[in-house]
């Protein structure tokens, strides 16, 4: 259906608004049901709230029954910088050019010719500016205002996103001098309370906002475990070998530091011209990328009995 709607941008916009308000209404009425909808579509069963087993079930349980205030801070692409500094990893931060709560306050004349614009909440709200002289500032600001208009997190009851104070940030555009294209490998390191488990690599990004890409998966010793961990008929499955990054040990060390105290978190990095850059911390991953058995395996790394349970959250 989405593929057909893409031919009509206005109708697609209306449809996306409908989905947003439907998800918002549902999540406010019943967060458990909202969390269950996509889960059931992917796993063909309901979330087991009494004895959750796989990674997604346990993330959903923690969203509703634990204090996720620190998740909120660390999922905020602006406020997480303070957390990174507190953990002694400030040298991995990408240069920040500015932060604005109102896109009208952005003075583009003061920004360099190349930079990245991001909303500090959500997913996919990223704009790569490769030549400032070609910008339509009016249209850019309209897009940024649209990003800030709606809170992210109602879909699948990712509640920790809802408390993020929304803003726009501008950061340095990272360019690898050795790369033939303006695309970077994204190293997504799964960690469980300071212990590195495995590494999802997103590479060969193409298309608008890099939505077309390939996936391979490795253990912490850089053995390719794609066939075991990834869903082979997944849209982005590739599974081929990728050269081990020279900065792997540094990325693993930083990931360990940043993940201490979190039952689970995915720590994302880029490595550019021999230097490691922090990407983001992700606490609620998307569905359908991994094999079902691997979701169970990752879920086994989380011991919910060690967490302090609070009354079920209401929105």
Envelope shape: globular
What is the typical, i.e. mean, pLDDT? 92
Please report the number of helical segments: 10
Low-confidence stretches: none
Proportion of strand residues: 15-25%
Task: Give the CA-CA distance, first to last residue.
Answer: 31 Å
Describe the strand arrangement of the main beta sheet, using strand numbers.
7-6-5-8-9
- How helix-rich are the residues, as a percent range? 25-40%
Q: What is Rg? A: 19 Å
Topology pattern, helix = H, strand = E? HHHHHHEEEHEEEEHHEEH
What is the makeup of the main sheet?
5 strands, antiparallel
Find the count of extended strands (DSSP E, 2+ residues). Answer: 9
Structural class: alpha+beta
Characterize this entry briefly.
With 315 residues, the protein is an alpha+beta fold. The chain is built from ten helices and nine strands.
Describe the structure.
There is one protein chain. With 315 residues, the protein is an alpha+beta fold. Helix content is 32%, strand content 19%. The strands form 2 sheets. It has a 5-stranded antiparallel beta sheet. β8 and β9 form a beta hairpin. α2 packs across α3, α3 packs antiparallel against α4 and α4 packs across α10. The two termini are 31 Å apart.
Structural topology:
Layout: H1 2-5, H2 9-29, H3 31-43, H4 55-65, H5 69-75, H6 80-86, E1 96-100, E2 115-119, E3 126-129, H7 137-149, E4 168-171, E5 186-192, E6 195-206, E7 212-219, H8 226-229, H9 248-259, E8 265-272, E9 275-282, H10 292-299
Antiparallel strand pairs: 1-4, 2-3, 2-4, 5-6, 5-8, 6-7, 8-9
């Amino acid at each position: 259906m989405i593929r057909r709607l893409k031919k009509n941008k206005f109708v697609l916009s209306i449809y996306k608004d409908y989905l947003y308000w439907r998800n918002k209404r549902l999540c406010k009425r019943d967060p458990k049901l909202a969390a269950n909808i996509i889960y059931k579509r992917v796993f063909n069963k309901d979330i087991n709230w009494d004895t959750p087993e796989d990674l997604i079930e346990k993330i959903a349980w923690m969203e509703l029954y634990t204090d996720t205030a620190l998740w909120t801070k660390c999922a905020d692409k602006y406020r997480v910088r303070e957390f990174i500094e507190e953990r002694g990893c400030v040298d991995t931060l990408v240069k920040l050019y500015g932060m604005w709560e109102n896109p009208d306050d952005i003075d583009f004349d003061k920004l360099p010719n190349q930079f990245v614009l991001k909303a500090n909440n959500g997913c996919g709200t990223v704009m790569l500016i490769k030549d400032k002289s070609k910008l339509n500032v009016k249209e850019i600001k309209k897009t940024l205002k649209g990003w800030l208009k709606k809170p992210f997190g109602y879909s699948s009851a990712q509640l920790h996103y809802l408390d993020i104070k929304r803003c726009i940030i501008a950061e340095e555009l990272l360019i690898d001098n050795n790369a033939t294209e303006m695309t970077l490998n994204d190293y997504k390191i799964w960690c469980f309370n300071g212990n590195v488990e495995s590494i999802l690599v997103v590479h060969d990004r193409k298309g608008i906002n890099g939505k077309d890409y390939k996936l391979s998966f490795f253990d912490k010793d850089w053995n390719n475990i794609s066939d075991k961990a990834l869903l082979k008929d997944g849209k982005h499955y590739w599974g081929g070998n990728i050269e081990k990054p020279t900065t792997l040990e540094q990325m693993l060390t930083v990931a360990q530091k940043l993940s201490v105290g979190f039952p689970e978190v995915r720590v994302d990095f880029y490595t550019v011209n021999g230097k490691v850059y922090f990407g983001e911390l992700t606490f609620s991953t998307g569905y359908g990328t991994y094999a079902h058995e691997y979701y169970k395996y990752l879920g086994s790394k989380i011991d919910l009995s060690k967490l302090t349970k609070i009354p079920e959250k209401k929105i």
